[in-house]
Design goal:
Layout (H helix, E strand, L loop, with lengths): L2 H16 L2 H10 L2 H8 L10 E5 L4 H7 L11 E2 L2 H9 L5 E5 L3 H6 L7 E4 L4 H24 L23 H32 L1 H6 L5 H31 L8 H25 L3 H18 L11 H7 L3 H13 L5 H30 L1
Parallel strand pairs: 1-2, 1-3
Antiparallel strand pairs: 3-4
Helix pairs in contact: 1-10, 3-8, 8-10, 8-11, 8-12, 8-14, 10-11, 11-14, 11-15, 14-15
């Protein structure tokens, strides 16, 4: 292989990328708008959930319960009638509808156990799962304080002092933004490398390359390094400008060590993109293959659910995927400030997986050329 040939082929791919506005727009949106949206959407906590209250008791206790729901967890409670409740739930206006029955306060003071009804729109899964517990805790607290006739902090026999490491405020935005960058690195590298090869085939320029004094390995490397450089540059911009400056999210570890791990990850994922492109005959087929391969890898890589929570057989299978090691490496560096002495097993795993993917993709690429 000649370095000069690989360099010139890579420059050609960079010019082709500059002439494709759709891919440039995708790169810009993925590493700016999508990172910001993932950070501010706060999918793990209850935020301004719409709630309505059917107050058929009209007592001081019911008014006290209605006033206990406030931002940021809930939006302003809407007072509605019982006949409006089902219509508003069907139209998706309310996520929670709390029904306070008649004579609720009187029955409670009399020592009976009156029941309240909470209707939940379970199609809004994130809010429904966590919001029901919030509502129950708020209502129970207000009723207990009303019966005791004074507000007092609950006394416990043991004082538990909570110290959160790496994220003292338990801010979910930190995790969401950084994991979005990590996931988008794999997503874009596979798309760009595969699209570069399919674009050559659809335009008929792959035959022009075959009659030139170049080898399949040079063609592959000429597509891998420019796409890796583009994704690394976009990811570096996203971390330094969008994450650290715009969103004010700190990175605990060395950014250059993260770039080293990212380079090894890109070597494996761009090889995977070329392999998928040799299987697909056109860009639509390539898109379908991406859905079958990328989405399961990203969901099971450990960014959404810890790998330790998965079945043992699945953990063994995921150890062969580069995304699993890169997610563990990125979390160690960005959140815990780990150094080379901690992440070297992940780096070696990425090297081995990358060489395996490259060798298999090169074999498949040579077969497709024949």
């Amino acid at each position: 292989m000649r370095i000069s040939t690989i360099w010139r082929l890579g420059i050609k791919e960079l010019w082709n990328l500059l002439r494709t506005p759709a891919l440039l727009a995708l790169i810009g949106a993925v590493f700016t708008i999508q990172i910001y949206a993932a950070a501010v959407s706060m999918p793990f906590t209850l935020n301004r959930a719409p709630i309505s209250i059917v107050d058929e008791d009209a007592s001081p206790l019911s008014a006290r319960i209605a006033s206990a729901f406030y931002q940021p967890h809930f939006g302003p409670p809407q007072a509605i009638t019982l006949s409006e409740m089902n219509r508003r739930m069907d139209e998706g206006i309310d996520t929670f509808a709390l029904v306070i029955p008649p004579n609720f306060q009187r029955d409670l003071l009399a020592g009976s156990e009156p029941a309240m009804q909470l209707n939940v729109d379970a199609t809004r899964m994130t809010q429904a799962f966590t919001g029901a517990g919030y509502v129950q805790a708020i209502v129970s607290g207000e009723i207990s304080e009303f019966l005791q006739r004074y507000r007092v902090a609950a006394s416990v026999p043991v004082d538990l002092v909570l110290r959160a490491r790496f994220n003292p405020e338990l801010n979910p935005n930190w995790f969401s933004a950084m994991m979005e960058v990590v996931n988008n690195v794999a997503l874009l590298s596979v798309i760009l490398a595969g699209a570069a090869l399919i674009r050559e085939r659809e335009r008929g320029t792959i035959e022009h390359l075959l009659v030139m004094p170049v080898t399949p390995a040079e063609i592959m490397l000429g597509k891998i390094w420019p796409m890796a450089v583009v994704v690394m540059g976009a990811a570096f911009f996203s971390i330094t400008v969008v994450v650290q400056t715009w969103l004010a999210i700190p990175v605990a570890g060395s950014l250059w060590l993260l770039m080293l791990g990212m380079a090894l990850q890109l070597f494996a994922t761009t090889s995977l993109g070329i392999f998928l492109a040799t299987i697909a005959g056109s860009m639509p087929q390539f898109g379908l293959l991406l859905m079958l391969v990328l989405f399961p890898l990203q969901i099971l890589a450990g960014g959404l659910t810890p790998v330790e929570n998965m079945p043992a057989g699945l953990r063994i299978l995921l150890s062969l995927a580069p995304d699993t090691h890169f997610v563990a490496l990125s979390q160690s560096i960005m959140f815990r400030g780990a150094g080379l002495d901690v992440i070297w097993p992940q780096l070696l795993s990425l090297v081995a997986i990358g060489l395996g993917f490259f060798s298999f993709s090169l074999w498949r690429f040579r077969s497709s050329l024949r």
